[in-house]
Amino acid sequence: HTKARSRHKGRGAHPGNEDHVTVVSVGHSSTHCMLTLAAVMAPSLRLGTARAASNQGAARMSSSAAASTSAPYGSWPSAVTAKFITTSGVRIGGLGCDDSGSVYWLEGRPQEGGRQVVVKYAPGAEGASERGAVDATPKDANVRTRVHEYGGGAHLLTPKGVVYSDFKSQRLFLAPAGGGDAVCLTPESAWPDGQYRFADARLTPDGRHLVCVREDHSPTADAKPSAVLNEVVSVALDGSGAMTVLATGADFYAAPRLSPDGRTLAYITWEHPSMPWDATTLRVRPLGPLATAEGAGEDETAASTAGHARVAGADAEGCMSDGDISVQQPAFSPSGALYFISDESGFWNLYRAPPDGGYASAVNVLPRPTDFGGGSPGWQFGQQGFAFLQDGRVVATYVDRGSGQSRLVLLDDVAAPTPSEFGSEEGLPFFFGSLVESSDDGALYMLGGSPQRASGVYRWSGLLPGGGGAAEMIACSSSSEIDESLVSVPRPVEFPAPMGTSYGYYYPPRNDAFTSDEAAPPLLVKAHGGPTAATSTAFNPAIQFWTSRGFAVLDVDYGGSMGYGRDYRRRLRGNWGVCDIDDVCAGAQHLVAEGLADPKRLAIDGGSAGGYTTLGALAFKDIFTAGCSLYGVADLGCLAGDTHKFESRYLDGLVGKYPEDKQLYDERAPINAVDSLSCPVLLLQGDEDKIVPPNQAELMHAALLKKGLPCALKMYQGEQHGFRKAENIEDALNSELFFFSRVFGIEPTPDAAPFDIDNMPA
Hints:
Elements: E1 3-7, E2 21-26, H1 50-64, E3 69-70, H2 82-87, E4 91-97, E5 103-109, E6 115-121, E7 133-135, E8 155-158, E9 161-165, E10 172-176, E11 183-184, E12 196-203, E13 209-216, E14 229-236, E15 243-247, E16 252-258, E17 264-270, E18 281-286, E19 309-313, E20 327-332, E21 338-342, E22 349-353, E23 363-364, E24 386-388, E25 394-399, E26 406-411, E27 420-422, E28 431-437, E29 444-450, E30 453-460, E31 472-476, E32 491-495, E33 502-507, E34 514-515, E35 523-527, H3 541-547, E36 552-557, H4 566-569, H5 579-593, E37 602-607, H6 609-620, E38 626-630, H7 636-641, H8 650-654, H9 662-667, E39 681-686, H10 695-707, E40 711-716, H11 726-744
Helix pairs in contact: 5-6
């Protein structure tokens, strides 16, 4: 075959944006045949119960849709288009309140190339968006940090304005509260562009410094992963760029937090090869003078982590064993007590360490078989699964795995509190997190939603005297709502797998305008990224895109996922490429056995680590009949030697040491098992990806071509790890739809984006 790169503009791309996507294609050969929650969900579906629930749903649809049209599954036209998803929505995160009670959040805007903007809630203000917000950062700023590459914690609200990290330069800027030009706090005169990256900042009580994580990539900004230096530093807010190193000597740092009086610094640290969910340590140290333009700070010999007091966590952060402890998310209460989450009990529970005795006597204040801390703790900076109220009480959140609903726990700031719980019956959203109390009236703000409605910012007064009623959504991430007749509500499922019970969420096909005479629908199994992460019941229009067209979807929390306790999370130790693949296959087989999926039309997709699971399931098992890998790993050995610092030793725990265990890496690399692969594969990749380099997709594509399997590679220009540009999000989704439609013999819906599939007969 002769490889040729051609510019491609599918139907899903905006006119004039064809240069954003490249299709790697070859000539066809005649010798080959060929990328969110109000109603209560149903109880967990265990073996034998899913079929009954599905039949009830089918009866409901057929009885309520007398005028519906009969059409094959997968061919149903739907108003939930890729363009609808990108043009009507933004990503919302980074919720916060300033001292005046004003509410801010971070918006990711696909229509602006994925630019992230800090906005202030100001309904009625001139220039306010449909969400009632005005931009608080400059129009040319992209608020993102590249620390750990996954970022997070890229902005901070201060009395002077919004401090933010600019994505292009990675420098810190201040957007003044009263308006005006942004001020660079870390000027070029202090160090070269690109040398330092900053994240997860907190303001000192005197308002003169930030304390944050700094990542040093050398003066030339091209340090190898082993030479990248992570530290905790202070940064002066006088514009001088003066810094003082406060903690150094470990491989990684996160969550630097200051006591209310500013005299004590707490932080999380860990060493290679551990990840933050494996073995970390919480340490504290007293603070001395900090550097400004007028003078130097304390002697930096006091910054050595080895000399800082250990509060909780692993004694030896670099080892991984059954005795490891993961500690995350430290925060000081108004009383000065130090709170954090730790999995010492087997679950990420909330602990409290009083200041007396140097925080040495921490106690578990919420001992229960539940993970606190949010969906996927440790992947990004700024995550916090609990917060403090002005009166000193603590609020924390967790997800009830039986119902999929979020719960709020309220407790006093004491060693043995008596918690109170709140949920949807008290007016809270089905799913919520990122709790922030207003300094104005004491109401709680949160990010939340339901399986049937896009996520947004909510205000809830249920903890106020005389308060109550349903939480009010003040800003929605989507400007348009999907008609209820098109919304598939997820059902928690449990199914047997080789290492024990595994979990997921099943979405049945749903479009009340259509029915089908076919026995079962095509199934799309989704493998989340991470792999040590989790899926969610938050409303996801990209899933409704499939279900409203007649596909069923299974979103799998395979062994190793977060949210089910430490033992479940550790199933993946040494078993990546085994446990995850077994579980996605077991989930698909379970639904086939229940009559909920067509065994001849089983597709799988996943991004990043989920892309590896996808490729592995296709290469090592004979369950799926098509797959789509989005920026997925094809060669484990290449990934071990060609990725960024944060994940450069991740595979030690997931697979084994490299190169000592090279044989194991080779055995689990999908690219080495193409001979056993016998179904079509679509590869979608960003050409600026630093986490899973583009050569992974290119190598896999070349191997698929050589074997003569139907395949395609789309390389999206200007995209990194995950797609942010609207035109690329649209094209990727429409291309996947077209690919599966062609492979399964389904008449493509009008919005599917046609393109040449290599080795595919016309």
